[in-house]
Task: inverse folding
């Protein structure tokens, strides 16, 4: 009968009586499957709230966060150069100054080339692209499912209202402030880059002081993986962008497309935005060819762009970048969308390497080349 009695079970622990049922009663609602699911959902919500708060805070100080992030990427890209000079006895300060001057010189030359190639022909390039868009719109209007003229006029009216509004004017007047912010950000970039190049390992070791044991080893692996990923990304992307610009530029010169040099420069810049950048560059080049040389020439331009992109995707990128950016195209597109929404063009450029760093951290979470348990490949996936 004691089995069916109502008397709660008790145990004696060091002279005190502990009612086990009374202690477990408050948690009994969370012990079943639904309770565990609720706890997990609450953890996810808290993590998302903290992530949103962190992103919002970083967006409020972009004048600081963006130069620091770009400096980190550049320092990672030139980390092998710093290691080589230190291994060959070059003093740390001298190696830092040489590398910093090389980076600033490269950035200055690239900027000068862009301005020189595009400045005098930008108006012509813009008008050619605009005319090409008008031809495409005229062709779309000839289709049976095209929008009527009233809708097109309404869209143009809304655009004109925005351009003549006070909001647009205030944004245009903010150009002076934007220049000041650019100069401030560039100076901060150079200063932060100097310290990253000179004392990067020491700064990382300082950040790792709170960690001990396995947590310290994991943080070290994540740091090494992040530097390797960022460095490989910027070096590989710059190489791929240069090859794309040269290949498409030669094709445009052979096809006698006007503004071939500015278009090649734009190809180089847009190549830093994976997938989307190459598509935009090809569309722009095809529009210019359509206006200047006709439909057949524009189709040849499209063929050249597609051929170069296939060469890049199937041969050059795997060789140059290896497994650094082992991300699915769907993940890349989602990262580009989020980066564009949060940070515009610069956000689109930085979204993919940041995503690659996060995934790289997951890949070394439990050890070198040993991903976190939830991210490990199953046998069924390996067979496929």
Result:
């Amino acid at each position: 009968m004691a089995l069916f009695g109502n008397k709660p079970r008790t145990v004696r622990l060091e002279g005190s009586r502990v009612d086990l049922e009374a202690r477990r009663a408050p948690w009994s609602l969370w012990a079943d499957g639904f309770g565990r699911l609720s706890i997990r959902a609450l953890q996810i919500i808290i993590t998302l709230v903290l992530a949103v708060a962190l992103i919002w805070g970083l967006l409020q100080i972009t004048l600081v966060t963006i130069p620091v992030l770009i400096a980190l990427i550049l320092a990672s890209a030139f980390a092998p150069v710093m290691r080589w000079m230190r291994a060959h006895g070059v003093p740390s300060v001298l190696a830092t100054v040489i590398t910093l001057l090389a980076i600033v010189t490269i950035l200055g030359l690239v900027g000068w080339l862009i301005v020189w190639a595009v400045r005098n022909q930008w108006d012509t390039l813009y008008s050619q692209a605009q005319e090409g868009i008008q031809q495409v719109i005229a062709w779309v209007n000839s289709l049976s499912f095209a929008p009527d003229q009233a809708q097109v006029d309404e869209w143009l009216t809304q655009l004109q209202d925005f351009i003549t509004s006070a909001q647009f004017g205030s944004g245009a007047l903010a150009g002076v402030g934007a220049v000041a912010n650019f100069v401030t950000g560039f100076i901060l970039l150079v200063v932060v880059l100097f310290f990253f190049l000179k004392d990067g390992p020491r700064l990382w070791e300082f950040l790792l002081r709170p960690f001990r044991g396995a947590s310290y080893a994991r943080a070290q692996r994540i740091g090494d993986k992040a530097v390797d990923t960022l460095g490989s990304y910027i070096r590989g992307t710059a190489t791929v962008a240069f090859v794309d610009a040269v290949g498409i530029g030669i094709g445009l010169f052979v096809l006698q497309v006007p503004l071939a040099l500015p278009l090649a420069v734009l190809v180089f810049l847009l190549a830093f935005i994976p997938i989307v950048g190459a598509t935009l560059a090809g569309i722009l080049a095809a529009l210019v060819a359509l206006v200047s040389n006709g439909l057949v020439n524009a189709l040849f331009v499209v063929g050249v762009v597609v051929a170069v992109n296939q060469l890049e995707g199937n041969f050059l990128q795997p060789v140059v970048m290896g497994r650094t950016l082992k991300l699915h195209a769907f993940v890349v597109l989602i990262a580009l969308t989020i980066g564009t929404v949060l940070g515009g063009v610069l956000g689109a450029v930085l979204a993919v390497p940041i995503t690659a760093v996060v995934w790289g951290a997951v890949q070394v979470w439990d050890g070198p080349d040993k991903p976190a348990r939830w991210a490990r490949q199953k046998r069924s996936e390996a067979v496929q």
Q: What stands out?
A: The longest strand covers residues 10-13. The mean pLDDT is 76.
